């Protein structure tokens, strides 16, 4: 039987251990960090593989940005508010002076409808923009997309809107809007699954 001969010590390895340079030691033992892959395999699950162009990635990044989401919610809220204002003004005609003649002209009715529509549209637009912007900022800061984002955003939005009526109204608005946002988010996630 032959006697065991200890292999020679690599001088680079001795240099690493003397300097306590464990990062360089790991790189030495593992090898280089460059991995060249000629054939990238993308699993096909549903349909053909489509690799996005830089323009498509740029448009997608713009659409998913917080300012775009906030502006879109503002526009949609304005339209929804105008529709709600039209509906409510048609149900409750505003008769300001009970002693005045009871017949209103079409111009007066249309003027009241316009005022109600603009008021609702403005409020819904502000509500949509603030909620969407705050939720997007919270989601970006947390790095998660879950039910807590809507709850926090609802609390902040309700608090900001309620502060016009004072501190107590702000607290009630924050609690109410946070609860409403949580219930709506829960309902939407239950419907989706």
Automatic annotation (TrEMBL):
<keyword id="KW-0813">Transport</keyword>
<dbReference type="GO" id="GO:0045039">
    <property type="term" value="P:protein insertion into mitochondrial inner membrane"/>
</dbReference>
<keyword id="KW-0812">Transmembrane</keyword>
<comment type="subunit">
    <text>Component of the TIM22 complex.</text>
</comment>
<dbReference type="GO" id="GO:0042721">
    <property type="term" value="C:TIM22 mitochondrial import inner membrane insertion complex"/>
</dbReference>
<keyword id="KW-0472">Membrane</keyword>
<protein>
    <recommendedName>
        <fullName>Mitochondrial import inner membrane translocase subunit TIM22</fullName>
    </recommendedName>
</protein>
<keyword id="KW-1133">Transmembrane helix</keyword>
<comment type="similarity">
    <text>Belongs to the Tim17/Tim22/Tim23 family.</text>
</comment>
<dbReference type="Pfam" id="PF02466">
    <property type="entry name" value="Tim17"/>
</dbReference>
<keyword id="KW-0496">Mitochondrion</keyword>
<comment type="function">
    <text>Essential core component of the TIM22 complex, a complex that mediates the import and insertion of multi-pass transmembrane proteins into the mitochondrial inner membrane. In the TIM22 complex, it constitutes the voltage-activated and signal-gated channel. Forms a twin-pore translocase that uses the membrane potential as external driving force in 2 voltage-dependent steps.</text>
</comment>
<dbReference type="GO" id="GO:0030943">
    <property type="term" value="F:mitochondrion targeting sequence binding"/>
</dbReference>
<keyword id="KW-0999">Mitochondrion inner membrane</keyword>
<dbReference type="InterPro" id="IPR039175">
    <property type="entry name" value="TIM22"/>
</dbReference>
<dbReference type="GO" id="GO:0008320">
    <property type="term" value="F:protein transmembrane transporter activity"/>
</dbReference>
<keyword id="KW-0653">Protein transport</keyword>
<keyword id="KW-0811">Translocation</keyword>
């Amino acid at each position: 039987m032959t006697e065991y001969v200890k292999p020679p010590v690599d001088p680079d390895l001795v240099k690493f251990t003397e300097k306590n340079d464990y990062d360089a030691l790991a790189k030495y033992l593992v090898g280089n960090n460059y991995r060249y892959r000629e054939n990238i395999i993308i699993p096909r699950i549903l349909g053909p593989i489509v690799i996005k162009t830089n323009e498509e990635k740029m448009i997608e990044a713009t659409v998913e940005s917080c300012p775009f989401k906030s502006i879109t919610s503002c526009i949609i809220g304005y339209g929804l508010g105008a529709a709600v204002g039209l509906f409510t003004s048609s149900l409750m005609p505003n008769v300001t002076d009970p002693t005045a003649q009871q017949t209103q002209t079409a111009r007066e009715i249309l003027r009241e409808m316009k005022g109600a529509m603009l008021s609702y549209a403005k409020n819904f637009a502000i509500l949509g923009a603030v909620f969407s912007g705050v939720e997007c900022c919270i989601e970006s800061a947390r790095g998660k997309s879950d039910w807590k984002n809507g709850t926090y955003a609802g609390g902040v939005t309700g608090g900001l809107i309620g502060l016009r009526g004072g501190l107590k109204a702000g607290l009630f608005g924050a609690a109410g809007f946070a609860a409403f946002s949580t219930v709506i988010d829960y309902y939407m996630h239950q419907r989706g699954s």
